[in-house]
Acetate kinase (Pseudoalteromonas espejiana), 409 residues
Amino acid sequence: METVSMPTTPSKSQHVLVLNCGSSSLKFAIIDANNGHEIISGLAERLGSDTPSIKYKYQGNKTIIDLSANQAHAEAINTLVGLIKDHNLDEHLIAVGHRVVHGGEHFTKSALVDDKVIAGISDASSLAPLHGHANLLGISSAQASFAGLPQVAVFDTAFHQTMDKVAYLYALPYKLYTEHGVRRYGMHGTSHYYVAGQTAKLIGKQVEQSNFISAHLGNGCSVCAIKGGKSVDTSMGLTPLAGLVMGTRSGDIDPGLFNFLTTQLNYDAKQIDNLLNKESGLLGISELSNDCRTIEEAAVAGHEKAALALDIFCYRLAKQIAAYMVPLQTLDALIFTGGIGENSDIIREKVITQLAFLGLDCDKQANLDARFGNEGVISSATAATKAVVMPTNEEWVIALDAANIVKEL
Ligand code: AMP
């Protein structure tokens, strides 16, 4: 991700196995780096539990394989190797691309995995232990199973390494930064990068000459201010808990809450972490679900807390977007992406309506049409600032970065 324009496509047909390891899951896909075409994709879930399984989609057919109890990443990757060989998909594989959540300050761009890179990821994993551990497991299992194939690490944080100190430092004792790396890193970098490049194409501008705010709204949500193709600020922080209201994460809260919960309600650190990461957000407010679709349906049916959850989600998002006018000053387009951003016309309209002072408006029909993977401008022709829906494709960015790094070998 060292360039700011959309990645250059490699010349020959080249397939990259993209792996995204979570603590108990493994998302995988083989992507043709030339065009983003997905050859096979799937998800191994409940790894390490009594009932792990792999489901995958190939040539339009969906299949589920049950793994034995307690099998985890290594076994899932082994099964994946078998699958790939059974379908003769290994012939065109040129690399394995790993999505790595935290690259700390070590990584400003994607890297070919070697001992130094592993040490860097290991180092950064103190900042995101669950994810870091899973990412390292994924890399070592893939190295064992795909011996001879180059492994490339693509970092969720790398795109945001262009942020200035003014944007990334917390107002905490400075040595927490210098001695322990406590600062804002931001996540969803591959997504923000991708949609900025695609939006520039859509509206016929050079990304280097554009100012965008992209809202990646999925189970995790973040906003990024992108000036001339570079991230200048973003709402996630040291961890993905910061910023916006999310499915189960609170986003920003008063840090004084920690003292209140410990002294008044006897919470310990683990309970607080659980509360803020798993029991808050849309789920916490609605007391119904973390799933935006469910919340929207309930709100329409008159569920008051579901309606309130949506209102808070949109208000906080609109406020964050408005705040990014400080580093940007002018805005060419507001971009919606992620499961919610790409599909929820309700949320897009609610947010845009609150941002009319930025020259944004919402064309009702265009807003309704931009769903199910359709990109499009959803503001009217007369709007001073464009609103855009742009489906993200993080896997393609990972495949492209891997292909471009392999090309240099
Ligand atoms: P992601 O993490 O990007 O897969 O996004 C997951 C979120 O997208 C969940 O909250 C889903 O409810 C939401 N989502 C997916 N489709 C729709 C839809 N048609 N309307 C509203 N939200 C949706």
